[in-house]
Amino acid sequence: MKNRQFSIAEIRNAIAAGVISEESFARLESFLIAQSHEAAETEKFTLFRGMNDIFIALGVVALSIGWFILWGMLAASPTFWVAPLVAIAGYVVLAEYIAGKLKAALPSIAIMASLGVTIMLYAVAIYMSLTSTPDQMSGLDDVVDFGKRSINVLVVVSVIGFAFQVGFFLRYRLPVSFALIAAGILGVLWSALTAAVGPAISSYLHYLITATGLLLLGLGVFIDSRDPDRINGWAECAFWLYVMGAPMTIHSVAIAFDASPWVMVPVIVLAMLFSLIVDRRSPIISALIYVGYLLQSGFEGVSIDPSITIVLVCFIIGGLVMAFGVGWQKARQTILAPFETHAWRRYLPPS
């Protein structure tokens, strides 16, 4: 054990086993960051801690595929209505151990998705049995089709799914849950507006996605402002809000304006500045996708060989990514230096 160094995964396992508390780890991490003379990595997330998490996740996916196939085969049997209750109980037991005790993020995502889909499909099936004749349901495909046709069912299912996602987070406190919560917000808003306005609302889908993306980015900024040093679990929750919100916003704007350079260039510049100010890479990654698109469109306009176009785009994008990666902290210091004495500066991560 001489000079033994412990990994973050090992410390997380100790927290899950109750050897040390989450609060003790947060204080230790805060102390070590304060003692460090180098810029700390503030954008951390843990999707899986090793091959064992991937192994367990694959097992959950395989079990879920088998479950949904079996459930569909039982459509003509009374067992169709009992089997989901058994499956839900089984998923809850798995969640209690894997998400509650092991705190394994990747397998928990698989459990959360499978359990959520089971609950939502079961709710649709019950509603369908009350409003349709029994012979109209010959499998799960019929249940899904029925849900798609009924706006009221879509609203109810969206609310049920969103409530389940929030409840899953409140029970297990897994930051990655915020990725599905973010998608759930869009689902609830879209289904509610469709029910209120009608199918014509589909023409304004990109505006709704833009508004939802901006809402998620705003929530991410708010959460980050509560913990600028990012030493607790909420910082990782905010990470997933940025991951979902940035592409929603930038991509929907691109669709609305046909990726016009006159619109996308200012959007890309704003995304890059926003990324640097809040110390989050997600917006800048989303923006770089459209940098590549605009570069390719520009090179095609001057009749450059397609192979050379790809090479040039890759070189430019690769150079930008490397430049931002290497000079990230220096760029943040340059941008924020004039505002160091302002009161709002304390809500941002140190530069």
TrEMBL record:
TM stretches of this protein: 54-74, 80-99, 111-130, 150-170, 177-198, 204-225, 237-256, 262-278, 285-302, 308-328
Keywords, comma-separated and alphabetical: Membrane, Transmembrane, Transmembrane helix
Keyword Transmembrane: yes
Domain of life: Bacteria
Tagged with keyword Transmembrane: yes
Protein name: DUF2157 domain-containing protein
Organism: Thalassospira povalilytica
